[in-house]
Amino acid sequence: MSGSLAMPEAASLRPLEHALLRRVAGFAKLLRNHDFAVGLGESADAARLAGELAAERPAMLRSAFKALFCSRASDWKQFDALFDSYWLGKGMKRVMKVGGSAPAASRPSLAAPSAQAQGRDQPRQLAEEVSHLDGDVPQEGGTATSEGASAVEVHGATDFRKIADPYELAKAHAAAERLARVMRTRLTRRERARAKGRRIDLRSTIRRNIARGGTLLELRLRQRKAKPLRLVVLLDASGSMQMYTAVFTRFIHGVLDNFHEAEAFVFHTRLAHVSSAMREKNASRAVERLSLMAQGVGGGTRIGESLATFNQWHAKRVLNSRSCVMILSDGYDTGSPELLARELQRLRRRCRRIVWLNPMMGWEGYRPEAKAMQAAMPYLDLFAPAHNLESLAALEPYLARL
Amino acid sequence: MPMKLSVLSAKLAEAGYVADRELAMALHLMALLQRPLLLEGEAGVGKTEVAKALAAVHGTELIRLQCYEGLDRSDSLYEWNYQRQLLAIQARAASGSTVSEDDIFSERYLLERPLLQSIRQQRPPVLLVDEIDRADEEFEAFLLELLSDFQVTVPELGTIRARSIPHVVLTSNATREISDALRRRCLYHYVDFPEVDREAAILQRRLPGIGAVFALQIARAVGNVRKEDLRKVPGIAETLDWAAALIGLELTDLRSDPETVFDTMMCLLKTQEDKSRFTREVAARILGKVA
B33 to chain A, minimum CA–CA distance in Å? Predict the structure, then answer.
């Protein structure tokens, strides 16, 4: 099987091989754009296989690539369609439209619709960004903020002032602290050596008793190791959330104080990692530092894009399978709902739970009608109000079950 | 030298596993690229059977590591036999001879666990890491290291290199999301419930007494049962149970004795909720479609 590229003229083989390589690389790129975890290793293996199999039976390429490139059930289900559209040109019209005008000059003769491989997503995102800059922000974003602000003026302003009051501030801290305590650390079965425990740890017992000439006087035991839940908070600091930002930053401050493993991010049109600022012992100084970092808050909120940044740069480091992601936002998004949905879906794969706390939900007659909220709903484990301290406290039982 | 795809398919069939083309290709690539294979799918679709069949194909041993939460190196890789070591030390101390450390930490006192066992075979075995999603992340990371280097360091003994590289099959029921790194390292195959024809073929292979028509009837009926809204969808094992029950009751046609067929259909259902939902009318409807 190894040297199966045995064809008559070795010289004329070169360009063909080269073209095939490019096609395979293009395919890998297409898959990557569809959230497949495809690395260089896979591409190299695929190119090798393509060389060997194409010579024998091209029909086998599909099942070979399927085994190689897929890595989860969702990949498995969409693979055939992607394969067909790339290699057989089926359903390519739709994909071509999205791709826009890609440089067609360098395409090898073998290739059909490799255009969609050239950064299928970038043009679309760019186009969207441009459209936001032109029209969306003043229109949609404008209405969103004004709607938020006008309604908040009635009860929100007092809320805000109340929390500035030191007594209420202490209460907010207490609530956050209580929350932190009930998020009980999950017991795992992984054990570690301890002075007290259920089982004898022979390895460390022997090690410990070397000093006694190998006579086992002191037993070392093993016990279950407690593993803390990790909480990641994403706070919306956009204009429409202004009235609540102060409360929530204090809440986050309490959380970071109490949780062993917690991270905090603030987003509006961009995402900022604020854990270090929030770890400041003095609460008011922490909030001050935060407001400095969150400055430059313009018109709208780009939840989808901020989540994309989070997924791309922070998720790997910050999340594990024991993480709970808490999003504090009113869901007034000036970005596209599709992007938000896609990023939430990606986020879901990485963490245990997604909780969305929406301060607007506390208002009478509020229904999550914002487009972004609608798009996000299917991916949330919990969608709850968070307009006052009671609603935060009401989360306790849920978080305790995580 | 990996065997040809056609040979592999034939051997799989010989081993009693009816594989579709994609699975055969995945198994072929495993040998070709020397990568592990990750199998996902519902419980009861025969993921573990794949590994058994693969062992039969290669004519090697199957070494199985069942994962569970808290699985660690000492359960999966190696452990010193402390009891024997202590006994040896005391016995020699009593007889007055000196005990050398090299002696105590030698192969004699090493307990091989599945992972170490699998890389120390002369012939490459099939290593089945079953339900990897039940183990925790630390173990996953460690497994990843082992799967890329195929060598293990035992501090007291030194580095143990693989004598032969095992064929590694991992299975997952998706109770927990597996890390991207491990997924990328592996070939992937999603094991679905078999189509009617394939299930009939499996029945015929496993229960030689069954007629071709009857097998097809049963496969169709089970296929329809799977379309019902059930909490626990019956797998291939359940189909085999049911078919065995029917044969034991000397039935050769599903339509001949609806009463017995309905009673035995309980082989397919595994929860009280499903049983109560599965009324005689539902059964009659399903059996009606079979003909």
Answer: 7
